[in-house]
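Hi R.,

Here's the chain you asked about this morning:
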Amino acid sequence: MRAAPTCPRCFGPLQEPSIWSSSWRCGPHGDVLPYNAHRPSLAALTLVRESAVVPLWLPWPLPIGWLVTGFGAAGDERTGVRGSVVALSGPSITHGPADLLLIAEEPGVGLGAGYAGLAGPDPGEGVGAGPPHAKVNVNGHPTPLWCVQDVPSDRAAYAGEALGRWLWTIAWPADAGALLVLAQLTLADFRDVDWDVPFGAFSPRLEAE
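And here is the predicted structure, written out as tokens:
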């Protein structure tokens, strides 16, 4: 049985559409897109990929020792998936396990901000101002990312723009964010490829906090 969708901004419960409104509604945040997290499987990947109107980013090749550990989708049959998440888990730069979320979303969805621990729906004024703090390769093009300010100390968040949508990378623990700087990840849109990727256990980061 699939879990009930939640708010992409706070992961709280939603009021379902009714005869008076076609929108899903969060008490604190008003009308939002319904969000569902999916355990890692080919079926889940296919479900999200076929409905996505935003990219579904995957680093390829995967960093050594890393696995795909889940997916997330904000949207429904009416809207399509307008915010996507690919979760990955693997060894950190220093020691112990690390988790990474790659998020693509339209402005205002709030999914990246929700996982980054921000109150607003978007990454804030510092993103796009001044020199970038990191770069990733997106479809063969260097894409700048800026460190997102005011996130909790247990994580690191970077954000930028790719293909006209927000691109977020959120890493736990915070020093795992160095993966972006040191590895210079190459991202491909999962909608355009059909790779046999390795799956791991469901990421705890996709569960509501």
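One quick note: The mean pLDDT is 89.

Cheers,
M.
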